[in-house]
From TrEMBL:
<dbReference type="GO" id="GO:0055085">
    <property type="term" value="P:transmembrane transport"/>
</dbReference>
<dbReference type="GO" id="GO:0005886">
    <property type="term" value="C:plasma membrane"/>
</dbReference>
<feature type="transmembrane region" description="Helical">
    <location>
        <begin position="256"/>
        <end position="282"/>
    </location>
</feature>
<keyword id="KW-0812">Transmembrane</keyword>
<dbReference type="InterPro" id="IPR035906">
    <property type="entry name" value="MetI-like_sf"/>
</dbReference>
<keyword id="KW-0472">Membrane</keyword>
<protein>
    <submittedName>
        <fullName>Dipeptide-transport integral membrane protein ABC transporter DppB</fullName>
    </submittedName>
</protein>
<feature type="domain" description="ABC transmembrane type-1">
    <location>
        <begin position="107"/>
        <end position="325"/>
    </location>
</feature>
<feature type="transmembrane region" description="Helical">
    <location>
        <begin position="146"/>
        <end position="167"/>
    </location>
</feature>
<comment type="similarity">
    <text>Belongs to the binding-protein-dependent transport system permease family.</text>
</comment>
<keyword id="KW-1133">Transmembrane helix</keyword>
<feature type="transmembrane region" description="Helical">
    <location>
        <begin position="12"/>
        <end position="33"/>
    </location>
</feature>
<keyword id="KW-1003">Cell membrane</keyword>
<keyword id="KW-0813">Transport</keyword>
<feature type="transmembrane region" description="Helical">
    <location>
        <begin position="199"/>
        <end position="221"/>
    </location>
</feature>
<dbReference type="Pfam" id="PF00528">
    <property type="entry name" value="BPD_transp_1"/>
</dbReference>
<dbReference type="InterPro" id="IPR000515">
    <property type="entry name" value="MetI-like"/>
</dbReference>
Length: 335
């Protein structure tokens, strides 16, 4: 397994390098086509002096001659960028504040949202998929499949808005009127994030973020369970007289989780994008809201820096998912 881990690490490093280069090239190309981005710092109502433009260009590393040649990949700039990233410097926003420092402050809240998100996938997605497989062709199976179709067809932003106003405003308002503001349910159903209750007020947004991905996980879990239920090793376990619960959990569930874990790893990429909308609308001071506000304010350095961080984290998580396969199924060998 050691050789496989080294090989996958090398692949991950190469993939990160190519992804960061693509992001760098697209950014450079936009500057080459659209002109000096330093003008965006001053807005459309102020005409900057040449000295002001020069200072801003130097600070944001947009003064290199290659940025005046359309199509130039600016490799020297890219190597300088990698050096800054290696030192933890992911640029500065338009107020000259380090992006990495602001991300570090916001990461805990985003991790809370993703903890609720992954818990929802594990409990609802895997649990409902198992129930649908065990109750195949029964009413509960049809109901679960219909629910996955409906939830999968609803756009993330629409579901987040609907849940925010339905649960946070209407139901939350009724709870606050009848139970008081300090009741646990009243806190959970608040229409926006509260710094005084960071865990309770991320439950609804975390569930909202997870609903779309839960539909695919549920359907895949059902299909995988049905496939393994009919496999030879499960029939052998039943013939040996093992109880139905042990056969289901030890011999069927474990093998059925492999494709589901893969889908969860892939779904995290979509969840990272959905977190921008969810945290922005729910006013959660996380990385998603940081990007949400940066897009609204046209703060390009924040977007580029955070996207670079997200690329690195996503690829490293994908590597971790690959290594989990051998834990879930001992039959898998990497050598």
């Amino acid at each position: 397994m050691g050789r496989y881990v080294i090989r996958r690490l090398l692949q991950a490093v190469l993939t990160i390098f190519l992804a960061l280069f693509l992001l760098h090239y697209l950014t450079s190309l936009s500057i080459q086509i659209n002109g000096n981005p330093a003008y965006a710092f001053f807005g459309g109502q102020i005409t900057p002096t040449q000295e002001q433009l020069r200072v801003v260009a130097e600070r944001y590393h947009t003064d290199h001659p290659c940025l005046k040649r359309v199509g130039d990949p600016c490799l020297s700039n890219f190597m300088d960028t990698l050096g800054r990233y290696a030192n933890g410097d992911f640029g500065q926003d338009l107020r000259f504040r380090p992006v990495s420092d602001q991300v570090v402050m916001r990461v805990p809240n985003t991790l809370r949202v993703f903890a609720i998100n992954i818990a929802t996938w594990a409990i609802a997605g895997i649990g409902l998929g198992m129930l649908a497989a065990v109750r195949r062709e029964k009413f509960s199976d049809y109901l679960i499949r219909a629910g996955t179709i409906i939830s999968g067809a609803v756009p993330t932003f629409l579901f987040v808005l609907a849940l925010k106003y339905l649960a946070g405003v209407w139901i939350g308002g009724w709870l606050r009127d009848h139970l008081g503001d300090d009741n646990v349910l009243s806190i959970i159903f608040r229409p926006s994030w509260d710094e005084a209750h960071p865990w309770l007020t991320v439950i609804l947004p975390g569930i909202a973020l997870a609903v779309i991905g839960t539909a695919g996980i549920t359907r895949l879990m059902r299909t995988s369970m049905l496939e393994n239920i009919r496999s030879d090793h499960v029939r052998t376990a039943k013939a040996k007289g093992l109880t139905g619960g042990r056969v289901l959990l030890a011999h069927t569930l474990r093998n059925s989780l492999i494709p589901v874990v893969t889908l969860i790893g892939l779904s995290l990429g979509g969840a990272l994008g959905g977190a921008v909308i969810t945290e922005g609308l729910w006013n959660i001071r996380g990385v998603g809201q940081f990007v949400f506000n940066a897009v609204r304010q046209n703060d390009t350095p924040i977007v580029v820096g955070v996207v670079s961080l997200v690329v690195i984290c996503y690829l490293l998580f994908s590597l971790l998912i690959d290594l989990l396969y051998a834990v879930l199924d001992p039959r898998i060998r990497y050598e």
